[in-house]
Automatic annotation (TrEMBL):
Pfam families: Kinesin. It comes from the Eukaryota. Gene3D superfamilies: Kinesin motor domain. GO terms for molecular function: ATP binding; microtubule binding; microtubule motor activity. It comes from Salix viminalis. This is Kinesin-like protein. Residues 406-742 form the Kinesin motor domain. Transmembrane segments: none annotated.
Amino acid sequence: MVGTANNGRMRHAFSVVNSEEVGLNSAPPSNAGSEYGGFEFTREDVYGLLNERMKYKNKFNYKERCENMMDYIKRLRLCIKWFQELEGGYLFEQEKLQNALDFTESKCVEMDLILKNKEEELNLIIVELRKSLASLQEKLSKEKSEKLAALDSLAKEKEARLTVEKSQASLLEEKGKIQGELQSANQRITSVNDMYKLLQEYNSSLQLYNSKLQTDLDTAHENVKRGEKEKAAIVENLCTLRGQFTSLQDQFNSCKVLPMRMMMAVLKATVDEGVKQKDALVNEIASLRAELQQVSEDRESLLLQVQTLTAEVVNCEELVVKSNELKEKCLSQSNQLKTLQDELEATQNKLRVSDLSAFETKTEFEDQKKLISELQNRLEDAELKIIDGEKFRKKLHNTILELKGNIRVFCRVRPLIPEDSPGADGRVISFPTTTEALGRGIDLAQNGQKYSFTFDKVFMPDASQEDVFVEISQLVQSALDGYKVCIFAYGQTGSGKTYTMMGKPGNPEQKGLIPRSLEQIFQTKQSLQSQGWKYEMQVSMLEIYNETIRDLLSTKDSSRAEYGSNGKQYAIKHDANGNTLVSDLTVVDVCSTREVSFLLDQASHSRSVGKTQMNEQSSRSHFVFTLRISGVNENTEQQVQGVLNLIDLAGSERLSKSGSTGDRLRETQAINRSLSSLSDVIFALAKKEDHVPFRHSKLTYLLQPCLGGDSKTLMFANISPDNFSLGESLCSLRFASRVNACEIGTPRRQANMRSFESRLSLG
């Protein structure tokens, strides 16, 4: 009645579906109504009954032998009947659980349909909300631009208003000045007009006086002319008298006649009279000349006065012209001031209208802002519902996968790097955007043909280490809950496996899954202390190099011997509970993340790394990190045993591309053989063959509990977007698709209420 090994696992004939082992001394679910209902068998009773030998007092006493045989047969029938009833009860329970499982699966399918419908509805709502949000944002931006334009125009109007007020004030001041100047100019004009009238009168009097002087001057000229004529007449008379005197002298001399004295007296009287006339004429000429000089001087002074008055008249005329110009300017400024006042009043009216419009716009903006806030809240609620729905879908999906026992597969595409082949643009790999395949689908184009694959999750090249870890954090958390968890990275060399698992040293943002998983486990360990949980953790690290196990934590690492780093021959063993033991492997107790980080640094320095044409630092071995967790709750006395296996597989490579020779060639051949064995195991599991070749390589034999046991297993398929690696990427995606279709059994939680030893077996 004991089950045989199937696929490398021991299956007991009587085991409950909820994975808790039941011994042979357990009672059947119900034996009421059975004629053997009062009997129960223990393991010792069954083994004793099977190994019982007949003892006879007389071996020739066939009656006694027949009775003993009948009694033995009766007891065997009783045992068989009890086992049949027990098996019937278990079959009934199994059928019952299978029905429950079918019901759960149908319910999950219904929930999936409902979730898809809800998701479609939410997507439609989100699309509508996004459209409305886009329109509102556009309207808001337009209103903001209009508001900014209104504010600009308002500012400009305020500036114009200030400038108008300033110009108005300056114009008023200038107007006051001009009015003062106008008044003074008017006064001056009045005084100038009065003076002009006086000057005109004075000028007319001067003109009269000048005409009088001119007449006097003309009279004096006539007198002078007359005096000159008289002088000429006197001179002529003198000449005549001289002639007469001469003739008289001649007569006197000739005739010497008497009366001489009379003639002399007459002549002397005539001469005296001529001299008197001459003196009178000379005096009159001198007086006339003096009068003429005085008239000339008076005339020159009057001319000077006339010129001065003419200049003053010209100045007065200029003042009159300037006064007229000032009047015109004052009138134009008054008109301009009136125009500015009208413009100011119109601007104030426009400003009031603009203020009203701005207030209405502000009110409408506030309403739109409230509406946008409400829509954003609704959008956030819808996104939260989508996130909750996605979490619920993932939970249901994970539950279905756990019930089915499938290996989960995540695909990660690394970004292009400078070392990639020239001309690589990453267009050979694309990601579908449909609702069903968003975040889960990947398409690869080769030779004009498109290959589509769907996995549990697909990470694009821009996905960060944090994004990747968020997706596996709950899986890592289940190791603290008592489950065996295995996560391994698969892919060609240079596809980013080591970066995904270990990250980039010295850069906290690019820490890999192993450091992040340890941080989460130790943080959760601290938070669970308040609930009474205490955990003990142990770490071991090994590598499989050329089909040889090496202990990466061994302190005796002086040489690389054939059977390990310190000459030991490590053997892999599996116990009946599905646990794995590696003999002589170093196991270190750890209490903090710092201790594990130190051990990881030590292991990374001890790991085999080489340079090939495909990768500058290519991992030449399979790296296995194991964290064994044992926990006890002091309040409930519940005990759990969990195991976390994190594995960085060596990358597959083609010799024609890697150019490996010597040691690198042997390493490549060993890596490809072990990965080929892993592929054979996956094919056998996918086809559900009776025999699965786990023992064909150390890697598959070490991974046997993860691939064929009750472990939660996840595989990372790392893909390179380089055109040069297109063939290897397609092979990796096909292999990952086959892995995702494998059923390995339902994960079983290792929890009990019994005491346990401090050291656990390897997972």
